[in-house]
Amino acid sequence: MIDGLFTFNNLLFFVLVLVNWISILLCYRYFGKTGLFCWMAFGVLVANVGILKNAEIFWLMASLGNVTHITLCLIVDIINENYGYKEAKKAVYIGFTALILFTIIMQINLLFNPSMFDTGHEHMLALFKIMPWICAGSILGYLISNMIDVWIFSTIKKYLPDDKYLWIRKLGSTTISQAFDVVIFVIIGFSTFASMEYMIALMTSIYIFKVLINTFDTPFIYISKRIQKKLKENGIAID
């Protein structure tokens, strides 16, 4: 049992999560709010490509795209905390727009007949010719869950504005909103070909995975508050 904790996949999982968290803070530190907006667009694309890669992590079958996907909630919450409701919604819309445009442009690219020298067409088909229902579930789940996250976070902050309640705003908004994301994604993406038992098991696995990451990334929103003070001192993206 103990030996099973220190597998290559489990250790690499920690590396992947830390790279996501630290890179978000670095983008915020050096580029301000603009850096978070850019990471939002980048993260949405990485998450939706990474969803095709599955691995066993801590006895759960996990999609690696979910690692980056849940960190998007951290970005939304940082923006909501430091810049307000409207800016948090803007971040969600930026990610949504990036995802829609990426999906449309990649699908058009796949329609071209490859040249005789092409070596990547079949690989691109395997990666990006995803089933339409899974794509729809991913897009709708992202938009609806993140808008719920923004609303819940702002509502909690209205009644519990003190910094000592920041962890409640962070965990409460993300834990609830991600339940919507998981349910929407699995029902829309898998109900046409999967059994109810499989979908329930998939929902449970994905949700546990996301809640764990969401819980452990809470200290990073506190770090973002310190970064915001530095940005104010330097006059970077304080509006």
List keywords for this structure.
single chain; 239 residues; mainly alpha; two-stranded antiparallel ribbon; 8 helices; 3% strand
Describe this structure in words.
With 239 residues, the chain is mainly α. The protein has one domain (3-234). Helix content is 79%, strand content 3%. The protein has eight helices and two strands. It has helices spanning 8-50, 65-83, 85-111, 121-128, 132-159, 166-190, 196-216, 218-234; strands spanning 54-57, 60-63. A two-stranded antiparallel ribbon has the order 1-2. β1 (54-57) and β2 (60-63) form a beta hairpin. α2 packs parallel to α5. The radius of gyration is 19 Å and the shape is globular. The model has no long low-confidence stretch (mean pLDDT 88).
Number of individual domains: 1
Share of residues in strands: under 5%
Would you list the SSEs in sequence order as H and E? HEEHHHHHHH
Task: Return the structural class.
Answer: mainly alpha
The number of helical runs is 8
Radius of gyration: 19 Å
Q: Count the E strands.
A: 2
Task: Please bin the fraction of helical residues.
Answer: over 70%
Major sheet summary line: 2 strands, antiparallel
User: Could you report the average pLDDT, rounded to the nearest whole number?
Assistant: 88
Distance between the termini: 51 Å
- The residue ranges in which pLDDT falls below 50 over 5 or more consecutive positions are none
Shape: globular
Q: How are the strands ordered across the major sheet?
A: 1-2
